[in-house]
Amino acid sequence: MIKFFLMVNKQGQTRLSKYYEHVEINKRTLLETEVIKSCLSRSNEQCSFIEYKDFKLIYRQYAALFIVVGVNDTENEMAIYEFIHNFVEVLDDYFSRVSELDVSFFSAVSQVFHTSWQRQASPDQVLVLALEDDPTSV
């Protein structure tokens, strides 16, 4: 089960956070700081799966953005790793080359994330569903 989803830049600033379990605001800040430090301090040669406290962190880097997903111990790491990639593919298609600014200010990111995960659809299917739900799309 996914506990949280973070998009972070190389400077360690959280650009998007979504929690699927209740975490108090002051604890979120501490959690994000520790999680970000854990991911940013790793080299490209190291594994993208980290055991952290009572859950696992799965992350991928895309240009200046890191996407970090916190999951429980029973979740399949490779499935989450592939899910992150599919999520980024959908964002790229939706925004025509997604940027950090797009992620910071566009509410459809959360919808795309939910659609991708719940339906475990292909990137093309998720893009069609996201465009159907977006009132600003033509």
UniProtKB/TrEMBL annotation:
<dbReference type="InterPro" id="IPR022775">
    <property type="entry name" value="AP_mu_sigma_su"/>
</dbReference>
<comment type="similarity">
    <text>Belongs to the adaptor complexes small subunit family.</text>
</comment>
<protein>
    <recommendedName>
        <fullName>AP complex subunit sigma</fullName>
    </recommendedName>
</protein>
<dbReference type="GO" id="GO:0006886">
    <property type="term" value="P:intracellular protein transport"/>
</dbReference>
<comment type="subunit">
    <text>Adaptor protein complex 4 (AP-4) is a heterotetramer composed of two large adaptins (epsilon-type subunit AP4E1 and beta-type subunit AP4B1), a medium adaptin (mu-type subunit AP4M1) and a small adaptin (sigma-type AP4S1).</text>
</comment>
<comment type="function">
    <text>Component of the adaptor protein complex 4 (AP-4). Adaptor protein complexes are vesicle coat components involved both in vesicle formation and cargo selection. They control the vesicular transport of proteins in different trafficking pathways. AP-4 forms a non clathrin-associated coat on vesicles departing the trans-Golgi network (TGN) and may be involved in the targeting of proteins from the trans-Golgi network (TGN) to the endosomal-lysosomal system.</text>
</comment>
<keyword id="KW-0472">Membrane</keyword>
<dbReference type="GO" id="GO:0005737">
    <property type="term" value="C:cytoplasm"/>
</dbReference>
<feature type="domain" description="AP complex mu/sigma subunit">
    <location>
        <begin position="1"/>
        <end position="106"/>
    </location>
</feature>
<dbReference type="InterPro" id="IPR011012">
    <property type="entry name" value="Longin-like_dom_sf"/>
</dbReference>
<keyword id="KW-0813">Transport</keyword>
<dbReference type="Pfam" id="PF01217">
    <property type="entry name" value="Clat_adaptor_s"/>
</dbReference>
<dbReference type="InterPro" id="IPR016635">
    <property type="entry name" value="AP_complex_ssu"/>
</dbReference>
<dbReference type="GO" id="GO:0012505">
    <property type="term" value="C:endomembrane system"/>
</dbReference>
<keyword id="KW-0653">Protein transport</keyword>
